[in-house]
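#structure-requests
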Amino acid sequence: MKYGISFGVFLSTSQILQYCKTSSKERYEYERKDPFDPEFLSENISPILKAIRIGITAPNPHNVQPWKFKLIDDHSALLYVDEKRLLKDTDPTYRQIHIGQGTFLENLSLGTQVLGYSSEVSLFPEGKYTIDDIGKKPIAKIVLVKQEDLIRNPLSEFITDRVTRRSIYEGEDLTQEDFEKIRKDSAVLYSELKFVPKAGSEELRKQLVAAMQMETDTYNTYEESRIWFRYNDEEIGKFKDGLSLRATGVSGIKYFFARNFFLKPGTESWHSPENKKAGMDMFASQVESSKGFIFLKTDHNEIIDWVQSGRDYLRLHLAVTKNGFSLHPMSQILQEYPEMDPIRKEFESSLKPGEKIQMLVRLGKSDYYYYSPRRDPKDFILG
């Protein structure tokens, strides 16, 4: 995927503007809506549907949006994993999918405070839950309670602007003081946060690139990304989920030429040496531009730890946003498929028995805005 300008191609001003979105907070039609937009809030729907609309703006793996809901009444619902939206090759244990359940729950719990509701969340309300129960037993029961004197968590103010930025990062390296502010603001409840400064992270950066190379060179895992990849704005608007060049931080003229001349739909183009090298070059540049890293660790690695670490990750992401930084998950090295095992085990070799690094992110500053799309909230509701 090489980028260049042919002298035979002429772009109008309107064409250039269409592709040059970078720092603008203006949302394209296919991007997710602000759930707190006054017009959006004024719609005559039940409080639980408004809460779900807030919750689904949470970050989730590959933007598969792996949630479905059974409404109980206007103020309560059951959350299930959507078994049709799993990542069976890159996430064979379904750990990341369950982290995505936690991000939803915390996003909803914080967001509904803006509406004047507290959220009572009961995990695994039907008792013991195993992987075999995916899609059958609920992850959580959610009950909204109206409170006139509710004190809002300051993090709720940053749900609207929270975005995952996979672009090149600018600015100074993060300091220990920066991290301490983020840790204090996040006030994580179930996990431990650890900061890795840019200085001295050479080995980590090499490991991250090696992990992405392994995912790229393993046919099934790279193919899974292709299946969830949306090649252009029309596909983004049609499916309103998945990955895309825009989500990767590609914009402007590079986006125009990549979309129209180099990256073509189909397995042949996706798995071509040229496309894989371009993807790896982009990823390596992203990693190299990182200004620091944070990982989120739990003492155990059970399903409940996955869900709870997801709640903490959402708080971390909002705290990072509050402090003016950007965040990009580096999930490849944490994945549990056989080809990744040697790289992951080396990375986690310093952990105590039973411990697990659930999330690892790179940080820096970027003014690139892309609000990953979300499907219609009604599409998540069980009939």
